[in-house]
Amino acid sequence: MEEERWRLLNRAITKAKVILEGYAVNEVFSSEEYVTCYDCVYYLCHSSTNQVKLRHGFKRAMEESLVSAFPSLLGKNGVPLLREFIRLWTNYKIMSKCLRGFFQYLDRDTFDPIGAPSLSDISIYCFHDLVAKVLDQRLTNVTVILISQDRHGRLIDQNLLQCFLRYYLESGEEGKIAYCAMFEAILEDAATYYSQLATKWYPTLSWDNYVQKVEQCKVGEYERAAKYLQQPSVERLIQVVHSEMIKKYADKRTAEEVNSMVNEISAMRMEDV
Q1: Which residue has better confidence, 3 or 252?
Q2: Rounded CA separation 51/109 (Å)
Q3: Whose CA, among 71, 94, 191, 266, lies 20 to 30 Å from 24?
């Protein structure tokens, strides 16, 4: 009987992998099959040896599904890479949820070794290690390019960018760490752009006109970024704009005004002589 349960469960795991291709769960499994798989795990969990095997089996299923799907990302760059990445992540979440439903009895505190990750965490770690981490630099590059294009007034797929950045919010602690690194690249690119703009505008405009144009930049940057970044990230981005265009030049303006006053006083003394 136990061997039959293992066979049923392994067949279900193999069957579930087609969800990565875009099939809905109810197209792959009937409600009866779903309950049968849950029951298999339930009865197998009564053995501590099986508990370990089931946990490893779940992780292996996640890994094998990603290894088989990863070639769809090879050879892609730019927007096509981003689009395929989101498609894979979306389908993977559905498949992972389906398999976690089979294995959910294993997630009970009674069966969790101390410090063992949950099934949800295992699925996230697998995706991060086998997909996101491998593509990290390419994904960062295309994100920075798209945001820069948006800043320059070019038409981009903002929904695509929003969906991609949402991945970091959905992928646990590993996602947060990866997001921080990627966001630093966004800030660096923004700092370069606005520093160059300030260098161009500051010498040719009055201070009042300059500040007015800077405020227009800040409003435009805020409105664009708010469509795909979380509020704390938007605020940090605006701080970069302010720092590159106002703070640096406000300090310079103060120094220039002091020098001007010193020169005026010196000139007045010369006239008195």
Answers
A1: 3
A2: 12
A3: 71
Q: What is the pLDDT of residues 69-87, one digit of tens each?
A: 999 898 899 999 999 999 9
Structure tokens of 241? 């704009």
Phi, psi (rounded to 5 degrees) for 237 = -65, -40
Q: How far apart are CA 83 and CA 73, in angstroms?
A: 10
- Residue 75 region by backbone torsions, left for phi larger than 0, else alpha for psi between -120 and 50, else beta: left
The span from the CA of 80 to the CA of 90, in Å, is: 15
Cβ atoms 52, 103 nearer than 8 A? no
pTM of the model: 0.86
Residue of 94, 111, 114 whose CA lies nearest to 16: 94
110-152 residue pLDDT tens: 555 656 789 999 999 999 999 999 999 999 999 999 999 999 9
Mean pLDDT for 11-40 is 94
Token couple for 40:
């298999």
Contact 16, 95 (CB under 8 A): yes
Structure tokens at 74: 């090879």
Residue type present at position 164:
F
- Residue 165 tokens read as 């950045």
pLDDT tens digits for 25-38?
999 999 999 999 99
Which amino acid is it at 84?
E
